[in-house]
Write a structure and sequence with these properties.
By secondary structure, this protein is of the alpha/beta class. The protein contains 14 helices and eleven strands. 48% of the residues lie in helices and 15% in strands. The strands form four sheets. It has a five-stranded parallel sheet. A two-stranded antiparallel sheet has the order 3-4. Strand 3 and strand 4 form a beta hairpin. It is globular, with a radius of gyration of 21 Å.
Length: 330
């Protein structure tokens, strides 16, 4: 690809990505700190990928996606997952209308641009799978009718890592549908002081709509055009392959710790997330640093650990760190 095209692409992306700063600014009014969370929400939004959030209660997970939907001027619905929730409570159902003497479709809360599945692991597999058809196919079947979901469509599911009583862990095949798994950490001391001050004042800032859903769909088209060199493609494939066959990359010590590695969906997600990250950084091409920046979020839920790894308290993040350090950077 010649330099003229790269230059043109760069200029176009500089122009098209200007709203990223506006979005970040609006979210920054409400969300204190949590830069990693905000960046990953934008990556999910720009690449059309769903996000699984893990963190203890009270870290602004719900507030973050609510704020994003306000800034994008889109429809937001929150579903609180509980053990007695039914698939119909998520996707909708057929209701008999006495007036018309026929069944009518009543659409569920999944018909929105942003859907927050709060504590997704509190519901049985039947409910989780109802949401997953929507996530994968962007459509819902109620009775004999199939309905398309509004675009952009983003599911952000949260799960609490500390309370495992009465939860239904997400099966691996379902977890794989999430493009990113973001671990939300505690705020820094200074940020926490700011949070106390904001709550004490009782005046909560609200995000203003700065972007339309159409702007997001247009930006997604541009994100796909971000240039990715063959060397970067090989780099991505090497990283994912190293999670499957670590011994091929001088990582024989990981062989007994990994039960299974990333699937081809991991490679696709890593490529798309890297392009979105380059777009956020207002660049028309992907560099190895982009891949490294999104690597943990894309891979941490796609690597299965053996009992041996769990006994030794090895985490998937440590494995990814070793893989990134071992694979040769182009």
């Amino acid at each position: 690809m010649d330099s003229v095209n790269i230059r043109q692409l760069n200029e176009r992306i500089q122009k098209e990505s200007s709203f990223v700063d506006l979005l970040t600014l609006e979210m920054g009014k409400v969300i204190v700190g949590q830069k990693n969370l905000v960046d990953n929400l934008l990556i999910g939004l720009l690449s059309g990928g769903h996000i699984l959030l893990e963190g203890v209660p009270g870290l602004a997970k719900t507030l973050a996606i609510n704020t994003l939907s306000q800034a994008v001027d889109a429809k937001f619905n929150r579903i609180q997952f509980t053990p007695d929730l039914l698939p119909a409570d998520v996707i909708g159902t057929m209701i008999y209308s006495q007036k018309n003497e026929s069944f009518e479709v009543h659409k569920g809360p999944v018909f929105a641009n942003f859907v927050l599945a709060d504590e997704i692991n509190r519901s049985p597999a039947k409910v989780q799978s109802a949401l997953l058809e929507a996530m994968q196919e962007h459509q819902v079947t109620i009775g004999e009718n199939t309905f398309r979901l509004p675009e952009p469509f983003l599911v952000m599911a949260t799960q609490n890592p500390i309370e495992q009583e009465g939860t239904y862990p997400l099966p691996e095949a379902q977890v794989d549908r999430f493009m990113l798994k973001v671990v939300v950490s505690y705020p820094a001391k200074e940020e926490e002081r700011q949070i106390i001050r904001m709550n004490g004042a009782g005046e909560f800032p609200k995000a203003s709509p700065v972007v339309t859903p159409d702007d997001i769909l247009r930006a997604r088209e541009v994100v796909r055009e971000v240039y990715m060199d063959e060397k970067i493609e090989r780099y991505i494939v090497d990283i994912v392959n190293a999670t499957r066959k670590p011994e091929d990359y001088s990582l024989a010590e990981l062989k007994d710790l990994i039960a299974y590695g990333g699937s081809p969906r991991a490679s696709i997600s890593l490529a798309m997330a890297s392009k979105a990250y380059a777009f956020i950084k207002r660049r028309g091409y992907v560099i190895p640093e982009d891949v490294r920046a999104v690597c943990k979020e894309v891979l941490r839920h796609r690597i299965g650990l053996t009992y041996e790894a769990e006994a030794e308290n090895v985490t998937t993040d440590e494995i990814i760190e070793k893989v990134i350090n071992a694979v040769i950077v182009p």
